[in-house]
Amino acid sequence: MIKMYLIRKTRALLRHHKKACILGVSVCLLLSYWYWYGEGEVAQTGRPDWVEGRRELYRQVWREVLHREGNYTVQGCTLPRLDPWGLEVKQFVSSIPQVTCSSKQPSLLYTSYDKLLFNTSALNTTQYTRSSLTCGYRYIQLVDDDTYHFLPEQQMSGDQVQLSPDYNGVWARCYLKTWAWMDWLLPEIALSFIGVQIYHNILIYVPQLPAEPRLSSQYSVNILVIDALSQLNFKRSFPRTWKVMRSLNGILFEGHSRVGQNSYPNVMAMLSGETGGVWPEDMPNRTEMYYIDEERQPLLSYVFRNHGYITMQMEDVQNMGDFNRKGVVGFKNPPADIYYRAAFWAIVKANFALLRNRLIGSSDCFACLQEKMQHKFEIPAIHDFIETYKDVPTFAFVHLTEYLHNDLNMAKYYDQDMANMISSLQSSSALKNTFFMLMGDHGFQRSDPPFIFTKQGKTEINMPAFYLLPPKDFSMKHPEKHKNLVENSKVTTTHFDINQMMRDILSMAVDKPVSQIFKEFEGHGKSLFENLSSRTCEEAEIPEEYCSCMDGVTSMDTEDDVLLRLGQALLSDVNSYLQGYKLCEKLTLSKLKDASLKKSNSKSLLTFQIHVQQRQAIFEAQVICTANSGDSCNISLTRLDWYSVTSQCVPHSLSRLSPLCICQD
After folding, report:
1. Inter-axis angle of helices 18-37 and 341-353, to 10 degrees?
2. Among 465, 525, 616, 624, which is disulfide-ready with 440 (CB 3.0 to 4.6 Å)?
3. How far is residue 216's CA from residue 391's CA, in Å, rounded to a whole number?
4. Is 450 exposed, middle or buried, given 0-12, 13-18 or 19+ CB atoms closer than 10 A?
């Protein structure tokens, strides 16, 4: 009743005070745009010099502790064996977050394959008739990697529209015919508020592109990355999917490891064969847009496309994608035939960033897109792509970040739909000639809940999920390669090894040696089609700080004066670094926790947590010293707790200070 009263009053005001209302709304929209999308300058800062820290490490007592000149013989890798529901983590992993989308609009429009359809079932739940509604859509055009345009609106003449192969997303809406004249006066956000526009959303679809039929030697490659999904969290959160994958003779790689801290280096290792160098946003002298396809060696999607494959790339959180930051990094040329940047960038920005709702964690990620959870749009599109192109060779890379990036247990919402998708694709033979990979880039890294402060949580960070479903006939056509896949699932593997395997897949498809296809490419690791045997982290090219092998690890006393002095020295270096900016509080030591020393054949890794008194912030310090390298040790400090709420005084131009800075009151 209140809503109807407000709508009637609003309509009356509009009839009598149109100019004033339009002016007021316009001012609000401009202010909102400035608030949401105002940009700062490019960061031009460095890192702490660790003067005091290195002085401490130079002391004889640390030389004796680290034994930098020593030689420790380690053969192979003893992998950790952990219970997914172990007592240490059970309290953090058992719940299922409750999600209620804030939008209550009826789902009047939806896409299936390359069609936009009217949902008569949803209409029946409303007070409206089909004849009382006008529905339309606008294609979303990618102008460049940071810019999209909504093309002119087209009306639906019936209940079904064949969508253009030139795009992959539409802004779709339905509104009351009676009040159509208001569409010329008010923005859509206002039309929705007063009840004239009863449905609007951005919908993705799979365009039908011309393609050559598959040859018998051409296997497809479809990669689905769930952000921050560890191997153990896959077992916890995907029981139905796990069951389906096992029934199809899928292979779970039990010793899979990350090779970098966050998504970028791990995805780059998999898609290009190298970790991508310094993240462009952290380059102190960068002044221009950094284009991945011009600065780095080509991603596999470019290479596969050049050899006749239909390619697809989809990432959902486009304000912090693997390869995209507005004005900082992106692609000069689209990395795939079907590139969903425009649609998902519009999802983030359009409608004053209100399409996504139900915040997950403290910032950036959302569970819902209007009235539905986001995976209800994404998984059908993945299904439609694989089904549409099941008779042609394809290469697809999908990275879904929204759910698990900030909440350890949100991955559970993917499971039923994922299991249904894989079962459906298997039934239709769409996976018959496909290497299907379900995996993580790394494990969960957020500190709320304090899961990552447990020993198991720290291990899970380093061991992302990797489940491979080979083509149905692969074991018969290539028995030795399949045998090696199975055996390699029990030893240490990396994203580098996946990259080498995919190079081999393309080599088989075009009957050319890998060395010829990838001439002058940087490459690391060994193909999973080869027998890897048991490898140390060093042999597998896993940096020591990400190594989960259990060999050579000892605990250290966090009350020891030597360790306390080192912790205080590192904080002193941070304070010296931040002092000139006059933004941040001076950090003082509260306590140290979880200290350990790991020795391998050529390196020593010291790891411990530094808890400070200011805002109960937590850092993880890592000191890596290489044998026979004199007194040089590499020092790094990583913020573990949520720092967005403690660094709000830091301007965008100094954004790299944020993890270190606790703003002054």
Report:
1. 130
2. 465
3. 11
4. middle
Q: Count CB atoms within 10 A of the CB of residue 117.
A: 15
432 backbone dihedrals φ, ψ, rounded to 5°: -60, -35
Chain mean position to CA 286: 24
Whether 597 contacts 65, CB under 8 Å: yes
Strand 603-612 with 154-155, pairing: unpaired
Residues 6+ apart with CB under 8 A from 606: 66, 556, 595, 596, 597, 621, 622, 623, 624, 625
What's the predicted TM-score (pTM) here? 0.84
pLDDT tens-digit readout, 14-40: 444 434 443 443 434 333 333 333 333
Q: What is the chain's length?
A: 665
Look at strands 553-555 and 290-291 and give their pairing: unpaired
CB atoms within 10 A of CB 21: 17
- Phi and psi at residue 365, in whole multiples of 5°? -115, 145
Residue 140 DSSP one-character state? E
Residue carrying structure tokens 């304000």: 319
- The burial class, CB within 10 Å (0-12 / 13-18 / 19+), for 436 is buried
Q: Which tens digit of pLDDT belongs to each residue from 286-295? A: 888 999 999 9
Q: Where are the beta strands (DSSP E) in 55-153?
A: 109-112, 115-118, 133-144, 147-150
The per-residue pLDDT for range 567-604, each reduced to its tens digit, is 999 999 999 999 989 999 999 999 999 898 888 777 88
C-beta of residue 439 within 8 angstroms of C-beta of residue 464: yes
Classify residue 559 as left (phi > 0), alpha (psi -120 to 50) or beta: alpha
- Helix boundaries (H) for 168-299: 188-193, 231-237, 239-247, 263-271, 292-295
Token readout for 561 is 């004066």
Q: Is the pLDDT of residue 554 over 60?
A: yes
Report the pLDDT value the prediction gives residue 241, as an integer from 0 to 100: 98
Cα–Cα distance between 558 and 556 in angstroms, integer?
A: 6
b/e code 259-273 from CB counts within 10 Å (16+ = b): bbbebbbbbbbbbbb
Q: Is the peptide bond before 449 cis (omega within 30 degrees of 0)?
A: yes
CA distances from 465 to 248, 389, 607 (A): 18, 26, 24
Nearest residue to 385 (alpha-carbon basis) of 376, 374, 398, 372: 398
Q: What is the pLDDT of residues 226-251, one digit of tens each?
A: 999 999 999 999 999 999 999 999 99
Q: CA separation (Å) from 553 to 63, 225, 564, 596?
A: 18, 31, 20, 7
Instruction: Compute the distance between CA of residue 233 and CA of residue 228 in angstroms, rounded to an integer.
Output: 9
Sign of the CA dihedral running 654, 658, 662, 664: positive
